[in-house]
Each structure stands twice: as C-alpha cells, then as structure tokens.
Amino acid sequence: MFRGRIGIIQRIFAGYRKPFFEKLGSLPSIDVSVFAGQPLQNESIVTAEKLSSAHLWPTKNLYWTVISGYMLCWQSGISQWLHEFNPDVLIIGAEPRLLSSRFAIWWMKRRHRLSIGWGLGELPRSGPRFLALAHYLYTRNFIHCLDGLLTYSSKAAQDYCKLGIPADRIFVAHNAIDNIESEMFLSKWGSDDSWRSQWKTDIDIDPDLPVLLFVGRLLPQKKVEMLIRACIPLLGQCQILIVGDGPWKSYLEDYAKPYSKHIRFVGYQSGEMLAKCFIAADIFILPGWGGLALYQAMSYGKPVIVSFGDGTETDLVRNGENGVFFRPDDEGDLKEKICSLLGQKERLVEMGQTSIEIIRKEMSLDAMVDSFYRALSVLSATK
C-alpha cells in the first residue's frame, strides 16, 4: 500500500483534471502537489486555479519553436518545487518536449525515487520524415528513463510495449472525468422533453431536425471540416451543432457559411448550456482526436460515431453496441454511418443507454484513481 508524497508535473492544469487531482489527494496518508504552467494564448484551454485536497504550484512555461513548428517547453522553478515538496514519487506527462521533466527525472534518480510517465502512447506525427524519426527516437529514450508508465488506454499500453517497456511496468488508467454533473443534469432534464423545442429555437437551430453534436477544441486534428463535408448532402435531414473554441474556429465558420442554416457554432460552453447541448443531441460524432469529449457524451447517454484517434475510443466504444466506427479520413463511410443510425431511432436510445452503463460501471473517476493507486503501490514495492 503506497503512502507518501506524490508530485505531478503537467504542462498545464486543465480544468477537467481538477476533480481527479482532488480525489487522488483525498486518499489517506497521501500528499499531492501539482506543478503546472499556463497554455499558449492560442490554445483555448480552460485551466483551473486552485485545489483544496491537493496543492497547486503554479509555474511559468517558457516556450520556443524549432523546425516545422515543433514546440519545446521549459518550466521555471522546477528545482525549487522539487526541493520544497520533496516527492517520494513523481508522475510526469509522458511528453518529451517538456524539457524540464528530464531534470526532474535526474533529480529523482539521484535520490533513488520513482518517476512514472503518464501518456497517450505514440500518436501519428505530421511534418518531415526526419523530424518524425527524431521525435520517435527521442520519445523512446525519454520513456526508458522512467520507472513505469500509466496510460490513458489499452492502445497506449501496446505502444509502450512496442517501444521496449516491460508489460509489468505499464498500467492502464482509463481517462475519466467527474460525471456528477452529467448525472445531475440528466435527472433534471433527461426525461423531460418540454424544454427542448424552445431551447433549440433560442440557439437558432431547427426544433424538428435530428442534431449531430461535436464538442471539443477546434483544431486540425479534430477533423471537424471533414465532418461538415460528410454531412453536406444530409443537411435538411439533420443539422450539426458545434460546441468549442480554438485556433480553427474562424476558418471553420467561414467554411460552413454557405450551410449556416443547418450548421450552428455556439463557442465554448460549460454548465447548464453544455448539458443541454448533450441532452438535446441525437448522436455525438468525434471525427478525430478527443477522448474526454467522447467520455462526456457517453456520460449523458449518447450513441457515438468515432474513428480511430488517440486510442481512448477503442476502450470506450463497443462497435455496434453503444456506437459505430468509421474508417479514418473516409468521409463517405462517415456519411453512411450517420445515415444508417439516423433511420433507427429505437436503436439510438438503446445505444445511448449502453454508453451510460459503460461509464457508470467501467470508466468512472474512482476507477481511474484506483488504477493510479495500484500502479504506485506495485512500482514502489519494486524500487
């Protein structure tokens, strides 16, 4: 059983992570400190500013860009934080571009303490081949400096095994968020249809057409443009509601302008407005990366259409049960999957119910905390 101080290094303290850090910090005989900085201005990431059952040590991120937009980062004050908090175990985002993490690993090794990576595995890289190869080699070297790995998905665990990490040093902690809010809003509005028609009218969408929902940051890798292209022949039979902000928002709005009658952008949303977007939607579609939005959609009981992205979808989506997969970058296949589900209203309800059961029984925040604790206990016993 692990007892001691857990230091967690994150490039940024994203707001959706707060419930997880609070729950981890509330475990008995554990002290948690999160060392994190701020995102770049154009990243449109909502961050949290404080913790109650854990400590937050804000730092300044120093960014610079090298070849082909490849970003590197150093977090100032890393040495002071390490000396003052003096962690027994360090959990580090398995992102080698955070150069100060190398120093933190060295600091822990000198004291014969654990450094554990936390990551998504190997993701596809764009840009010149030599840069992709350099990143692969650098990543491989980086993760071999770690004592173990926590992964977001089973696919990520397989990636790290292929990079030569022993399987008994890899632990899957399925990425999860707190679903207390979704349960609360579902109990309030889920079985009540009286508000939906007026709400749709208020946000300027057709109250009589099925709603295809996308939620997430508007970035190229989310592939929202492909979603729009796939749905153009279907507009009038359905409509698209796009929730989120990001660097590509203006471009996507311009791209969708000829179809604005059936494509609605509502920007970043949270709380009641976001809950109503999920509850009122008929199908949630994730054409690219973005596992947490998928998790959130399932917590609201939505059937989902996904492709193969960062790997989290392979654990969350049971093809044909709570959703369907379409072939990557194949907008024709995406269109076919949408058409097929739109014509099966009863099946959509059944698939949505399966989604919410998967979240409640298998992918809860408690399960994620338990996975972290098990990894800490097993790895600390071998140090």
Description:
Strands 3-2-1-6-7-8-9 form a seven-stranded parallel β-sheet, sandwiched between helices. Helix content is 41%, strand content 19%. The protein is built from 15 helices and 15 strands. It starts with a strand and ends with a helix. By secondary structure, it is of the alpha/beta class. The chain folds into two domains: 4-176 and 364-382, 3-Layer(aba) Sandwich (Rossmann fold); 180-362, Glycogen Phosphorylase B (Rossmann fold). The mean pLDDT is 92.
Short description:
With 383 residues, this protein is of the alpha/beta class. It has helices at residues 18-25, 78-85, 100-110, 129-143, 154-162, 180-190, 196-202, 224-231, 249-256, 271-280, 291-299, 312-316, 331-342, 345-362, 365-382, and strands at 4-12, 30-37, 55-58, 61-65, 71-75, 89-93, 114-119, 148-151, 170-172, 211-215, 239-243, 263-267, 283-286, 304-306, 323-325.
Low-confidence stretches: none
**Spatial sequence of strands, sheet with the most strands:** 3-2-1-6-7-8-9
Shape: globular
How much is the average pLDDT?
A: 92
Order of helices and strands: EHEEEEHEHEHEHEHHEHEHEHEHEHEHHH
CATH domain class of the largest domain:
Alpha Beta
Percent helix range = 40-55%
Tell me the name of the CATH homologous superfamily of the largest domain: Glycogen Phosphorylase B
Instruction: Specify the CATH architecture of the largest domain.
Output: 3-Layer(aba) Sandwich
- The proportion of residues in beta strands is 15-25%
Query: Could you tell me the number of beta strands?
Result: 15
Which radius of gyration do the C-alpha atoms yield? 21 Å
- Tell me the span between the first and last alpha carbons: 13 Å
Biggest sheet features: 7 strands, parallel
